[in-house]
Task: structure prediction
Amino acid sequence: MLKQFECENFKGFSEPLIMDFSASRYDFNKSLIHHDIVSKALVYGKNGSGKSNLGIALFDIVSHLSDAKRMDNVYLQNYLCLNSKKTTARFKYTFCFQENEVVYEYHKANPDFLVSEKLTVNGKTLLNYHYLNAVPKLIDASLTGNLQIHLTGNRLSILKYIYRNTPQSSESILNKLMNFVNGMLWFRSLSEGNNYAGFTNGVASLDETIYSTNQKEELQKFLKENGVDFDLDFSLFNNIHALMVKFPKGKIPFLSISSTGTSSLYLFFYWRYFFPQLSFLFIDEFDAFLHYESAEYLIKIINQYENLQSVVTTHNTYLMNNKITRPDCCYIINGNQIKNLPACTDKEIREAHNLEKLYINGVFND
Result:
Protein backbone atom coordinates (compact mmCIF):
# COMPACT_ATOMS: atom_id res chain seq x y z
CA MET A 1 0.00 0.00 0.00
CA LEU A 2 1.03 3.58 -0.62
CA LYS A 3 1.28 5.32 2.75
CA GLN A 4 2.33 8.79 1.62
CA PHE A 5 3.07 10.62 -1.61
CA GLU A 6 5.00 13.82 -2.02
CA CYS A 7 5.97 15.85 -5.06
CA GLU A 8 7.48 19.27 -5.65
CA ASN A 9 8.12 21.56 -8.62
CA PHE A 10 5.89 19.46 -10.89
CA LYS A 11 3.30 21.12 -13.13
CA GLY A 12 1.13 23.28 -10.83
CA PHE A 13 2.78 22.13 -7.59
CA SER A 14 5.52 24.68 -6.94
CA GLU A 15 5.88 23.79 -3.26
CA PRO A 16 5.79 20.31 -1.73
CA LEU A 17 2.40 18.61 -2.05
CA ILE A 18 1.96 15.82 0.49
CA MET A 19 -0.90 13.32 0.39
CA ASP A 20 -0.95 11.31 3.61
CA PHE A 21 -2.94 8.08 3.45
CA SER A 22 -2.70 7.43 7.20
CA ALA A 23 -6.13 6.50 8.61
CA SER A 24 -7.85 7.95 11.64
CA ARG A 25 -9.52 5.96 14.43
CA TYR A 26 -13.08 5.50 13.20
CA ASP A 27 -15.03 2.38 14.11
CA PHE A 28 -17.15 2.20 10.95
CA ASN A 29 -16.50 1.24 7.33
CA LYS A 30 -13.29 -0.45 8.42
CA SER A 31 -13.05 -2.28 5.10
CA LEU A 32 -11.97 1.02 3.52
CA ILE A 33 -8.81 0.92 5.63
CA HIS A 34 -5.99 -1.58 5.20
CA HIS A 35 -3.32 -1.85 7.92
CA ASP A 36 -4.10 1.70 9.12
CA ILE A 37 -3.79 3.09 5.58
CA VAL A 38 -6.63 4.64 3.60
CA SER A 39 -7.45 2.17 0.86
CA LYS A 40 -10.37 3.98 -0.81
CA ALA A 41 -9.94 7.75 -1.19
CA LEU A 42 -12.25 10.37 -2.68
CA VAL A 43 -10.64 13.67 -3.72
CA TYR A 44 -12.65 16.90 -3.94
CA GLY A 45 -11.59 20.34 -5.06
CA LYS A 46 -12.68 23.31 -7.10
CA ASN A 47 -11.99 23.51 -10.82
CA GLY A 48 -8.28 24.05 -11.34
CA SER A 49 -7.43 23.02 -7.79
CA GLY A 50 -5.03 20.26 -8.90
CA LYS A 51 -7.11 17.05 -8.91
CA SER A 52 -6.00 15.94 -12.37
CA ASN A 53 -2.39 17.00 -11.78
CA LEU A 54 -2.40 14.87 -8.62
CA GLY A 55 -3.10 11.78 -10.70
CA ILE A 56 -0.47 12.70 -13.28
CA ALA A 57 2.07 13.23 -10.50
CA LEU A 58 1.25 9.96 -8.76
CA PHE A 59 1.78 8.07 -12.01
CA ASP A 60 5.10 9.64 -12.92
CA ILE A 61 6.77 6.62 -11.32
CA VAL A 62 5.23 4.41 -14.01
CA SER A 63 7.14 6.24 -16.75
CA HIS A 64 10.56 4.92 -15.73
CA LEU A 65 9.97 1.86 -13.53
CA SER A 66 7.39 0.16 -15.74
CA ASP A 67 7.01 -0.70 -19.42
CA ALA A 68 3.30 0.09 -19.27
CA LYS A 69 1.63 2.91 -21.17
CA ARG A 70 2.70 6.37 -20.06
CA MET A 71 0.66 9.55 -19.96
CA ASP A 72 0.03 11.02 -23.40
CA ASN A 73 2.24 13.92 -24.41
CA VAL A 74 -0.53 16.40 -23.72
CA TYR A 75 -0.24 15.54 -20.04
CA LEU A 76 3.53 15.90 -20.04
CA GLN A 77 3.71 19.47 -21.36
CA ASN A 78 5.12 21.93 -18.82
CA TYR A 79 6.63 19.11 -16.78
CA LEU A 80 8.36 21.47 -14.36
CA CYS A 81 6.38 24.13 -12.54
CA LEU A 82 6.60 27.41 -14.45
CA ASN A 83 6.34 29.39 -11.20
CA SER A 84 9.56 27.95 -9.81
CA LYS A 85 13.25 28.51 -10.49
CA LYS A 86 14.13 24.95 -9.46
CA THR A 87 15.56 22.82 -12.25
CA THR A 88 14.22 19.42 -11.20
CA ALA A 89 10.96 17.90 -9.99
CA ARG A 90 11.07 15.77 -6.85
CA PHE A 91 8.87 12.74 -6.16
CA LYS A 92 8.76 10.70 -2.97
CA TYR A 93 6.69 7.55 -2.39
CA THR A 94 6.40 5.88 1.01
CA PHE A 95 5.10 2.32 0.81
CA CYS A 96 4.18 -0.23 3.45
CA PHE A 97 4.69 -3.84 2.48
CA GLN A 98 3.65 -5.91 5.50
CA GLU A 99 6.01 -4.75 8.27
CA ASN A 100 8.44 -2.98 5.94
CA GLU A 101 8.43 0.74 5.18
CA VAL A 102 9.94 1.46 1.78
CA VAL A 103 10.75 5.00 0.65
CA TYR A 104 11.55 5.64 -3.00
CA GLU A 105 12.57 9.17 -3.94
CA TYR A 106 13.87 10.58 -7.21
CA HIS A 107 14.51 13.82 -9.11
CA LYS A 108 13.81 14.47 -12.78
CA ALA A 109 14.47 17.36 -15.14
CA ASN A 110 11.84 16.12 -17.60
CA PRO A 111 9.85 12.89 -18.12
CA ASP A 112 12.90 11.09 -19.55
CA PHE A 113 15.73 12.78 -17.66
CA LEU A 114 16.50 11.13 -14.32
CA VAL A 115 18.81 13.10 -12.06
CA SER A 116 18.90 10.88 -8.95
CA GLU A 117 17.23 7.89 -7.27
CA LYS A 118 17.16 6.88 -3.64
CA LEU A 119 15.72 3.78 -1.98
CA THR A 120 15.40 3.39 1.78
CA VAL A 121 14.02 0.33 3.59
CA ASN A 122 13.13 0.59 7.28
CA GLY A 123 15.39 3.61 7.65
CA LYS A 124 18.40 2.03 5.91
CA THR A 125 19.50 3.53 2.61
CA LEU A 126 20.11 0.79 0.05
CA LEU A 127 20.44 2.96 -3.03
CA ASN A 128 21.54 6.57 -3.50
CA TYR A 129 22.45 7.09 -7.13
CA HIS A 130 23.26 10.41 -8.81
CA TYR A 131 23.47 10.43 -12.60
CA LEU A 132 25.05 13.81 -13.32
CA ASN A 133 27.82 14.45 -10.82
CA ALA A 134 30.74 12.78 -9.10
CA VAL A 135 28.97 12.23 -5.78
CA PRO A 136 29.81 8.67 -4.62
CA LYS A 137 27.05 6.27 -5.63
CA LEU A 138 25.71 4.02 -2.90
CA ILE A 139 24.35 0.65 -4.06
CA ASP A 140 23.94 -1.90 -1.30
CA ALA A 141 25.11 -5.42 -2.15
CA SER A 142 21.79 -6.81 -0.90
CA LEU A 143 20.23 -5.30 -4.03
CA THR A 144 22.78 -6.27 -6.65
CA GLY A 145 24.55 -9.41 -5.45
CA ASN A 146 27.34 -10.03 -7.98
CA LEU A 147 25.83 -7.80 -10.65
CA GLN A 148 28.29 -5.51 -12.40
CA ILE A 149 26.64 -2.19 -13.15
CA HIS A 150 27.08 -0.99 -16.73
CA LEU A 151 24.63 1.85 -17.03
CA THR A 152 25.16 4.68 -19.48
CA GLY A 153 23.07 7.81 -19.68
CA ASN A 154 20.13 8.61 -17.46
CA ARG A 155 17.06 7.47 -19.39
CA LEU A 156 17.14 4.00 -17.81
CA SER A 157 16.40 3.82 -14.10
CA ILE A 158 19.18 2.21 -12.04
CA LEU A 159 16.52 0.57 -9.88
CA LYS A 160 14.81 -0.92 -12.94
CA TYR A 161 18.21 -2.02 -14.28
CA ILE A 162 18.98 -3.87 -11.06
CA TYR A 163 15.53 -5.47 -10.96
CA ARG A 164 15.82 -6.69 -14.55
CA ASN A 165 19.31 -8.12 -14.10
CA THR A 166 19.21 -9.80 -10.69
CA PRO A 167 17.15 -12.77 -9.47
CA GLN A 168 14.38 -11.65 -7.11
CA SER A 169 12.36 -13.79 -4.75
CA SER A 170 8.63 -13.19 -4.55
CA GLU A 171 9.13 -11.78 -1.05
CA SER A 172 11.98 -9.40 -1.85
CA ILE A 173 11.37 -5.72 -1.22
CA LEU A 174 12.39 -4.79 -4.75
CA ASN A 175 9.99 -7.34 -6.21
CA LYS A 176 7.11 -6.02 -4.08
CA LEU A 177 7.88 -2.44 -5.10
CA MET A 178 8.02 -3.27 -8.80
CA ASN A 179 4.88 -5.38 -8.62
CA PHE A 180 3.05 -2.45 -7.05
CA VAL A 181 4.17 -0.07 -9.79
CA ASN A 182 3.33 -2.57 -12.53
CA GLY A 183 -0.16 -2.92 -11.03
CA MET A 184 -0.97 0.81 -11.14
CA LEU A 185 -3.77 2.00 -13.46
CA TRP A 186 -5.03 5.51 -14.23
CA PHE A 187 -7.97 6.17 -16.50
CA ARG A 188 -10.54 8.80 -17.33
CA SER A 189 -13.51 9.22 -19.64
CA LEU A 190 -14.22 12.63 -21.14
CA SER A 191 -16.18 13.91 -24.11
CA GLU A 192 -13.04 14.01 -26.28
CA GLY A 193 -12.38 10.32 -25.61
CA ASN A 194 -11.00 7.80 -23.16
CA ASN A 195 -7.48 7.71 -21.82
CA TYR A 196 -5.43 5.42 -19.63
CA ALA A 197 -1.90 4.96 -18.28
CA GLY A 198 -0.12 2.18 -16.45
CA PHE A 199 -0.82 -1.53 -15.97
CA THR A 200 -0.57 -2.57 -19.62
CA ASN A 201 0.76 -1.36 -22.93
CA GLY A 202 -1.69 -1.65 -25.79
CA VAL A 203 -5.13 -3.05 -25.06
CA ALA A 204 -7.64 -4.83 -27.24
CA SER A 205 -10.77 -2.94 -28.18
CA LEU A 206 -13.42 -2.76 -25.49
CA ASP A 207 -15.87 -4.71 -27.65
CA GLU A 208 -13.37 -7.46 -28.48
CA THR A 209 -12.40 -7.85 -24.83
CA ILE A 210 -16.03 -8.18 -23.72
CA TYR A 211 -16.54 -10.81 -26.43
CA SER A 212 -13.37 -12.81 -25.69
CA THR A 213 -14.03 -12.85 -21.94
CA ASN A 214 -17.68 -13.82 -22.43
CA GLN A 215 -19.04 -10.89 -20.44
CA LYS A 216 -21.97 -9.86 -22.63
CA GLU A 217 -24.65 -11.03 -20.22
CA GLU A 218 -22.87 -9.50 -17.24
CA LEU A 219 -22.50 -6.20 -19.11
CA GLN A 220 -26.17 -6.21 -20.03
CA LYS A 221 -27.09 -6.76 -16.37
CA PHE A 222 -24.65 -4.07 -15.23
CA LEU A 223 -26.13 -1.50 -17.62
CA LYS A 224 -29.69 -2.40 -16.67
CA GLU A 225 -28.90 -1.87 -12.99
CA ASN A 226 -27.82 1.64 -13.99
CA GLY A 227 -30.99 2.37 -15.96
CA VAL A 228 -29.80 1.37 -19.45
CA ASP A 229 -31.89 -1.53 -20.72
CA PHE A 230 -30.25 -2.73 -23.96
CA ASP A 231 -30.52 -6.11 -25.65
CA LEU A 232 -26.90 -6.73 -26.56
CA ASP A 233 -25.35 -8.90 -29.23
CA PHE A 234 -22.17 -9.12 -31.30
CA SER A 235 -21.58 -8.84 -35.03
CA LEU A 236 -18.39 -9.68 -36.90
CA PHE A 237 -16.87 -6.99 -39.14
CA ASN A 238 -13.48 -7.65 -40.78
CA ASN A 239 -12.75 -10.34 -38.20
CA ILE A 240 -13.44 -7.91 -35.33
CA HIS A 241 -16.36 -8.37 -32.97
CA ALA A 242 -18.49 -5.27 -32.51
CA LEU A 243 -20.93 -4.84 -29.65
CA MET A 244 -24.42 -4.21 -31.02
CA VAL A 245 -27.83 -3.29 -29.66
CA LYS A 246 -30.71 -5.34 -31.01
CA PHE A 247 -34.03 -3.80 -32.00
CA PRO A 248 -37.08 -5.36 -33.73
CA LYS A 249 -35.94 -3.93 -37.08
CA GLY A 250 -32.22 -4.63 -36.80
CA LYS A 251 -28.96 -3.98 -34.92
CA ILE A 252 -26.93 -0.86 -34.37
CA PRO A 253 -23.41 -0.43 -32.87
CA PHE A 254 -23.58 0.08 -29.12
CA LEU A 255 -21.32 3.12 -28.96
CA SER A 256 -23.17 4.87 -31.79
CA ILE A 257 -26.28 5.27 -29.63
CA SER A 258 -24.67 5.45 -26.20
CA SER A 259 -24.79 8.69 -24.26
CA THR A 260 -21.59 10.00 -22.69
CA GLY A 261 -22.79 8.59 -19.38
CA THR A 262 -23.45 5.15 -20.84
CA SER A 263 -20.04 5.22 -22.52
CA SER A 264 -18.48 6.04 -19.13
CA LEU A 265 -20.28 3.09 -17.58
CA TYR A 266 -18.99 0.87 -20.39
CA LEU A 267 -15.41 2.03 -19.83
CA PHE A 268 -15.67 1.37 -16.10
CA PHE A 269 -17.09 -2.09 -16.76
CA TYR A 270 -14.21 -2.85 -19.11
CA TRP A 271 -11.52 -1.92 -16.59
CA ARG A 272 -13.35 -3.58 -13.72
CA TYR A 273 -12.42 -6.94 -15.21
CA PHE A 274 -8.79 -6.15 -14.33
CA PHE A 275 -9.39 -4.81 -10.82
CA PRO A 276 -8.29 -8.07 -9.12
CA GLN A 277 -4.88 -7.67 -10.80
CA LEU A 278 -4.35 -4.04 -9.77
CA SER A 279 -2.47 -2.61 -6.81
CA PHE A 280 -3.44 1.05 -7.24
CA LEU A 281 -6.28 2.66 -9.19
CA PHE A 282 -6.75 6.35 -10.00
CA ILE A 283 -9.93 7.43 -11.79
CA ASP A 284 -9.94 11.07 -12.85
CA GLU A 285 -13.19 12.95 -13.48
CA PHE A 286 -14.84 9.80 -12.16
CA ASP A 287 -18.49 10.76 -12.54
CA ALA A 288 -18.41 13.74 -14.88
CA PHE A 289 -21.30 12.24 -16.88
CA LEU A 290 -22.92 9.93 -14.35
CA HIS A 291 -26.18 10.14 -12.46
CA TYR A 292 -25.52 10.35 -8.73
CA GLU A 293 -27.04 6.89 -8.17
CA SER A 294 -24.74 5.33 -10.76
CA ALA A 295 -21.76 7.09 -9.17
CA GLU A 296 -22.62 5.55 -5.80
CA TYR A 297 -23.13 2.17 -7.45
CA LEU A 298 -19.64 2.26 -8.96
CA ILE A 299 -18.01 3.41 -5.72
CA LYS A 300 -19.58 0.44 -3.95
CA ILE A 301 -18.06 -1.85 -6.59
CA ILE A 302 -14.59 -0.37 -6.06
CA ASN A 303 -15.00 -0.70 -2.30
CA GLN A 304 -15.48 -4.45 -2.66
CA TYR A 305 -11.86 -4.97 -3.75
CA GLU A 306 -10.05 -5.20 -0.44
CA ASN A 307 -6.49 -5.35 -1.80
CA LEU A 308 -6.98 -2.53 -4.31
CA GLN A 309 -5.95 0.95 -3.19
CA SER A 310 -7.91 3.59 -5.09
CA VAL A 311 -8.14 7.35 -5.50
CA VAL A 312 -11.15 8.86 -7.25
CA THR A 313 -11.55 12.54 -8.12
CA THR A 314 -15.07 13.93 -8.11
CA HIS A 315 -17.27 17.00 -7.62
CA ASN A 316 -20.17 14.83 -6.47
CA THR A 317 -20.81 15.74 -2.84
CA TYR A 318 -23.57 13.12 -2.68
CA LEU A 319 -20.77 10.55 -2.36
CA MET A 320 -19.46 12.34 0.72
CA ASN A 321 -21.55 10.36 3.17
CA ASN A 322 -20.73 7.86 5.86
CA LYS A 323 -22.80 5.11 4.24
CA ILE A 324 -20.14 4.45 1.63
CA THR A 325 -17.06 6.32 2.87
CA ARG A 326 -15.70 7.89 6.07
CA PRO A 327 -14.16 11.28 6.94
CA ASP A 328 -10.53 10.21 6.70
CA CYS A 329 -11.14 8.78 3.22
CA CYS A 330 -12.39 12.13 1.85
CA TYR A 331 -9.69 14.60 0.79
CA ILE A 332 -9.81 18.23 -0.29
CA ILE A 333 -7.11 19.55 -2.60
CA ASN A 334 -6.35 23.22 -3.06
CA GLY A 335 -3.17 24.11 -4.87
CA ASN A 336 -0.23 22.78 -2.88
CA GLN A 337 -2.31 21.31 -0.06
CA ILE A 338 -4.31 18.12 0.14
CA LYS A 339 -5.80 17.03 3.46
CA ASN A 340 -8.55 14.69 4.57
CA LEU A 341 -11.65 16.05 6.30
CA PRO A 342 -10.52 15.55 9.93
CA ALA A 343 -7.36 17.54 9.16
CA CYS A 344 -9.42 20.40 7.69
CA THR A 345 -11.34 21.29 10.84
CA ASP A 346 -11.08 21.48 14.61
CA LYS A 347 -14.60 20.06 14.83
CA GLU A 348 -14.91 16.43 15.94
CA ILE A 349 -16.49 14.47 13.09
CA ARG A 350 -18.68 11.53 13.98
CA GLU A 351 -20.49 8.83 12.07
CA ALA A 352 -23.86 10.55 12.52
CA HIS A 353 -22.67 13.78 10.92
CA ASN A 354 -23.81 14.75 7.44
CA LEU A 355 -20.45 15.20 5.69
CA GLU A 356 -21.97 16.72 2.56
CA LYS A 357 -23.82 19.36 4.55
CA LEU A 358 -20.71 20.19 6.60
CA TYR A 359 -18.68 20.51 3.41
CA ILE A 360 -21.20 22.76 1.65
CA ASN A 361 -21.48 24.96 4.75
CA GLY A 362 -17.75 25.55 4.79
CA VAL A 363 -16.81 23.60 7.91
CA PHE A 364 -13.72 22.21 6.15
CA ASN A 365 -12.50 25.56 4.80
CA ASP A 366 -9.61 25.76 7.25
About this structure: The chain has twelve helices and 19 strands.
